[in-house]
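Sequence of Dipeptidase (Aphanomyces astaci).
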Amino acid sequence: MTMWAILTLAVLAATGADGCTVIAVGKKATADGSVMLTHTNDAGLNPADLRMVRVPAMNHSDGAVRHVFNFQRNGYPRLVTMQRGPLYEPVDDQPLSEIIGQIPQVPYTHGYFDHDYGMINDVQLSIAESTCAAKTVGWPKSLHYGHNLFGIEELSKVALERCDSARCAIKLMGDLAETHGFFGEYGKNQRANYGSSSEALGISDKYGESWIFHILTGPNNSSAVWAAQRVPDEDMAVVANSFVIRTLNLDDSDHFMASANVESFARDMGWWDPATGPFDFSAAYSWAKPGPTKPLYGGRRIWRIYDVFAPSKHFDATLGQHPQVKTYPFSVTPDEKVTPKRLMDIMRDHYEGTPYDMTKDAASGPFGSPVRFGGSNKGVDGGWERSISMHRTTHSFVLQARGHLPDDVGGVAWYSLGAPHGSVYAPFSCAQHSVPSSYLVSRRHQFDTAGAWWAFQFVNNWSNLRYDLMHKHIQPVLDQIQDEAIALEAATVVEVANMTDTRARVDFIERRNNEFAQKMVDRWWSLAFTLVGKFNDGYVIDGDRSGDMHVPGYPAWWLQSTNYAAWPAKDAYNPPQEALQSNAMATSLTFTIVSAFSYFTIFAVGLMVGVLYLKHRTRSREYHRLV
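Predicted 3D structure, token representation.
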């Protein structure tokens, strides 16, 4: 294996571990004045806990402590504790999760939706995550060589428990990380894993602010360095596994926040020389191996999103995202106002209609599949395009906050299961207390028709058998249900406008949302069974009568690219002489029969033409006699 192949594989492994995409949209860039965040959880490389868990709001006694856990590589269950509500309490003989530390608890904590990272709380604070590469690395205190208490998973959850604003969340997470230490993703030993050692968050709130937050481990593999930049109200920003914050104007507290050591640490490490120009956070702290893999892994997604929403800017798709050179801006103003539906659509993207269309290149196979599996490259140099929607996406969401509405109405988690290109975003109120039971039972290792996740996972996997045909069958169903979901949420806002009893309003919204979500899952299972019956063994089967079954076969371009067109290969067919003579005689006889049939056909046609002509002449003479 060449050194370039080794580097490529290492970077892909690092960046692919939790390679998620975040979009943050300002309030003046949206159609209704809301702020929005998106997240694709592309960490399907591990058997993650697939549950969408509701952590309830809680009151805590004086002197109570909050336990801190390490969530990395936990699988299922992600957490077992008596501190986070009934869904995280032990079942049967489940042992409690290891506590790696604790901090003082506050008197009251908000309820929130939880997954690998905290999502949205009952006062509309919203968080979305994307793993990044940095020049520092830290390890948790649970390891004998670790110094740090907080990973991004727990930081996001603490922020949702204690804050209602993005500014509060940023300050709280930064202070906790500086005081107790931050660790990103780490390897199985003390070897540094720079490719995923830091984190970025999108954070939005009901006060109409959207921020991008970056954090990495600080000096001596401990403490933390962090910075945050507000997304301009008219703009949208994208994070695709790379830092995007550059110059910091810390005198402008309306738009920038940072740790006190943000510049000094970079200077001390030799990563920034004040004599060369202003401090650049990304240039100072981002990490990347030489070559195109890392720049294009995130840069192509940034270009695609900006090109879809701001095509007038004419960004160059080939530049990549580089630490030292600014290629794409921190944020852009979209050409048209952004809606949840448009964000959902871009989450389903594989660069369709561009030179990088993953349904059109040779790797898509004869049936146009956009799926590119990972794994060992067997020593072959190269790489795949990294799309926004991926086969290993476990879930994704669009979080919407609207401060002009009550929290339970204004805060919506549009939540999707599995790969977005074959899934629907269902609305859940940020304040509802439960989700359908089907959202809580799916396990990665065991197929189960009772699980909502498996409905979408199964359809996505089955469609790979014949993506070009099946996706055309799936898309209209997806569009119809998605439109119904959007209409339901809009109608709910209108119908609860005069409901003053908060508890009754939450119950009403919860019941409507859960009923819709479960019916959506049921309809998706129905679609799954339809696809199994319609598309199997290479056939398309429309019914039980003659003519209801056909074989679409392979496209001509693909047949030409295989050994089909050159079959049989030279020296692969050497029949005996007798067989050749027999074939020649059969061919001659066939030619004779065909020729005779052809002559007979010509004669018959000529005879018919002659008869018709004579009849016409006879009628013509009779006509002239009458005249």
